Amino acid sequence: MRVLLAGGAGYIGTHTAVSLLDAGHDVVLLDDLSGTHAVAAERVETITGRAAPLVVGDAADDAVVTTAFDEHGPFDAIIHFAAFKAVGESTQKPLEYYANNLDSTFALLRVGLERGIRSFVFSSSATVYSDPADLPFTEESSTSVDLSNPYGKTKRMNEVILADIARVHPELNVTVLRYFNPVGAHPSGLIGEDPAGTPNNLMPYVSRVAIGTLDRVGIFGSDYDTPDGTGLRDYIHVVDLAEGHVAALEKAEPGYVVYNLGTGLPVSVLELVAAFERAIGRDLPKQMMNRRPGDVAASYCDPAKARRDLGWVTKRGIDDACRDYWHWQQSNPSGYAGA
Length: 339
Ligand code: WQD
Description:
By secondary structure, this protein is α/β, with parallel strands linked by helices. It has a single domain, classed as NAD(P)-binding Rossmann-like Domain (Rossmann fold, 3-Layer(aba) Sandwich). It has 11 helices and 14 strands. The chain has helices at residues 11-22, 39-48, 62-72, 87-92, 94-114, 150-168, 202-211, 238-251, 269-280, 304-310, 318-331; strands at 2-6, 26-31, 54-56, 77-80, 119-125, 173-179, 181-183, 217-220, 232-233, 235-237, 255-261, 267-268, 286-289, 298-299. Helix 2 links the parallel strand 2 (26-31) and strand 3. The longest helix is centred in the first third of the chain and has 21 residues, at 94-114. The protein is globular and about 55 Å long. It binds UDP-4-deoxy-4-formamido-beta-L-arabinopyranose. The site of UDP-4-deoxy-4-formamido-beta-L-arabinopyranose has 18 residues, from helix 7 and strand 8.
C-alpha cells in the first residue's frame, strides 16, 4: 500500500511510518513541522533504509494536500495524525484548535476522495469516553462531545463527521483508532517524543526530571479512589501503537469502524514513575500535588476487539517503554533541535 501520513513527522506518525515501511508499504509524510523537525523524517529513513519523502505544509490547506498527491500520489490510504494536542492550551485557544483539528480532516477528505483513496484512518483518543462506570472502555462505551476541553471535543467531533462521510461513501474504509496513553520510543533511540517547552504528559515530564532539566515529578492527586490513590491510565508503547495502525490498514474493509488501541492494563502514576526509576537505576525527586483540573481517576480499555478483528496485541510493557524513552532522551538531550 502507498500511504500519506498527515502529521507524519510527529511522535506517533514517525513510529507508524517505520512500522509501515518495515511491513513493506510505501509512505509519504506531510507535516507543517509546527510540532516537530524535518530531521525526524530523515531518522525514519535511517532506521528503515527506505525512502520517507517529507512534504512540508499544512494538512488543512487543500492546495498543500493536492501538491502531495500530484508529486507523490496516488495513495491507497491517508492516516490523519495532524492535530494540535495540548489539552490545557486548547482551553485558551479554542478557535485555533477547532479550526486546525477540523479543517485538516476536511482538506484531507476533499482531496483524498477526489483522488480515490480507499481508506482513511483517524487518530482519535480515549478522551472521548465519558462514563467511568463503563471501565474498562469498549468501543461501545458511551462517548460524549461535551468533554472538559476543546482538544477532546475536536476528537469526538471528527469521529461524528467521519461516520457521516462513511455513510455516503460506502466504498470507503474509515477507521477510527482511539489511542490510550502513548509512551516510549523506538528502541534505536533515533525517534521519539519531542515536546516543546515544559511537557504536560507524565512520561516526558519524568524523563526531563531524570535528565536534570526539571526539578521534581509532581504527582497530580493522591486521593483518587484507586489502589494507591493516584490516577490509573493505560500506557501503550508507541511501537505497539504503530503496529496497530499497520494491522488496521491491512484489514481495512469498506465502512466505518472504531478500535481501542491500548494494553487493557491499568497502571498508576506511582507505578509509572517507579518503572522509570528502575529503568534509570536511581530514585527521582517526587512531590504530591493537588489533582489537575479535568483529570479522571481512571482510563483503560478492553482491547479485545482489535485482538479479535485485527489479530493485534501489545507486545511491550511499561518497563520496555521507560527503557526506550530513556534511551531516546539520553541520545537526544535537547530533542531533534540538538541534531
Ligand atoms: C497521565 C497521568 C495525570 C503529568 C492526556 C490527554 C489525552 C491524550 C494523552 C494527547 C494522569 C498524571 C501527569 C504530571 C502527573 N492526548 N500526571 N504529573 O491526562 O491521561 O491524557 O494525554 O495527545 O487526551 O488528556 O495523560 O500523561 O498528562 O497524565 O501526576 O506531571 O499522570 O494526573 O493521572 P492524560 P498525562
